[in-house]
């Protein structure tokens, strides 16, 4: 039994089959509707969030895993016989998950290393998969954590939003910006860099055309620098399988890569970004 295990938060949006294949354990965040407290990916789904908004125009808030929940999470894993844990946490500048995990890790004598991913969503998954590869090479948890810390700047990702309504409802977008985007049919792209999100290029037109242009632009921006061993195509749950396969086909035309992972946004990304969200994540060489 390998004594090193990789763990992360539910914001990593790791498909179940990938988590099982690489033995990655996931600590779920909370999704809150007034006095209702749901556990991300356990008793609530992205589909439910979109349906509830459609029916009631009600959006949830989200909250971090608490120190006590992390303590129980780590304790359960250590009781299985693992002696070293590398936990890849949701960006410290966006959530208290990192700090809470650090607090919990400090209560154990065993080696638990908490890494600030400096990103979110499947950017975290890319770091997890790299960590698993290092683990399977026999690398120690300490060295894995140090290596990941050096890799965070090479983690490239962002989102193309179909609408701004969810950001507006969540207080992250002004009414004027919402009105302008709706009138002009603008689809803003959000980049994640240095632990922060900011608006980059703005697209205009139908979703399909904007998404194809977005993929072309992102690949062209990092031409010759992309690690083509693994690319993640990430969408919200409302896109059909046919649509996703079409984008995957177009991505293969744009870039020769060894593996394309298709991932669906979990409850946290869905509740903040809304339906129609589309993204591309990769690492640089």
Describe the structure.
- The chain has 285 residues and is of the alpha/beta class.
- The chain folds into two domains: 4-28 and 65-152, 3-Layer(aba) Sandwich (Rossmann fold), CATH 3.40.50.10440; 155-284, 2-Layer Sandwich (Hypothetical Protein Tm841, Chain: A,domain 3), CATH 3.30.1180.
- Helix content is 41%, strand content 27%.
- The protein has eleven helices and 13 strands.
- The chain has helices at residues 16-22, 46-56, 67-78, 97-105, 122-136, 141-151, 165-169, 175-184, 207-221, 241-254, 267-273; strands at 4-9, 24-27, 30-33, 36-39, 61-63, 84-89, 111-116, 155-160, 186-193, 196-204, 226-235, 260-264, 278-284.
- The strands form three sheets. The protein has a six-stranded mixed beta sheet, sandwiched between helices.
- Helix 4 (97-105) links the parallel strand 6 (84-89) and strand 7 (111-116).
- The longest helix has 15 residues, at 122-136.
- Mean pLDDT is 90; it is low at 171-184.
Task: Give me the side-by-side strand order of the main sheet.
Answer: 10-9-8-13-11-12
The average pLDDT is 90
- As an assembly, this protein is single chain
CATH architecture of the largest domain: 2-Layer Sandwich
**DSSP helix fraction:** 40-55%
Domain count? 2
Main beta-sheet annotation: 6 strands, mixed
Distance between the termini: 31 Å
Q: Give the number of helices.
A: 11
Task: Give me the count of strands.
Answer: 13
Derived from helix and strand composition plus strand pairing, the structural class reads alpha/beta
Quick take:
This protein has 285 residues and is α/β, with parallel strands linked by helices. Helices cover 41% and strands 27% of the residues.
């Amino acid at each position: 039994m390998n004594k090193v295990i990789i763990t992360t938060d539910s914001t990593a949006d790791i498909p179940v089959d990938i988590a099982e294949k690489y033995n990655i354990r996931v600590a779920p965040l909370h999704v809150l509707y007034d006095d209702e407290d749901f556990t991300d990916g356990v008793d609530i789904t992205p589909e439910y969030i979109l349906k509830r908004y459609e029916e009631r125009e009600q959006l949830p808030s989200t909250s971090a895993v608490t120190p006590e929940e992390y303590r129980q999470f780590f304790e359960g894993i250590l009781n299985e016989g693992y002696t070293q844990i590398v936990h890849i946490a949701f960006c410290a500048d966006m959530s208290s998950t990192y700090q809470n995990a650090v607090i919990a890790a400090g209560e154990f004598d065993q080696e638990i290393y908490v890494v600030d991913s400096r990103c979110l969503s499947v950017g975290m998954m890319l770091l997890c998969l790299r960590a698993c590869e290092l683990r399977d090479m026999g690398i120690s948890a300490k060295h894995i954590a140090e290596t990941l810390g050096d890799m965070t700047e090479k983690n490239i990702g962002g989102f193309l939003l179909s609408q701004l309504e969810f950001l507006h409802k969540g207080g992250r977008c002004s009414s004027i910006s919402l009105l302008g985007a709706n009138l002009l049919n603008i689809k803003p792209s959000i980049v994640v860099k240095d632990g922060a999100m900011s608006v980059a290029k703005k697209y205009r037109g139908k979703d399909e055309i904007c998404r194809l242009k977005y993929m072309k632009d992102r690949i062209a921006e990092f031409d010759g620098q992309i690690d083509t061993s693994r690319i993640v195509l990430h969408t919200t749950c409302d896109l059909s399988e046919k649509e996703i396969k079409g984008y995957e086909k177009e991505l293969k035309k744009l870039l020769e890569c060894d593996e394309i992972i298709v991932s669906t946004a979990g409850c946290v990304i869905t509740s903040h970004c809304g339906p129609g969200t589309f993204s591309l994540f990769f690492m640089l060489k």
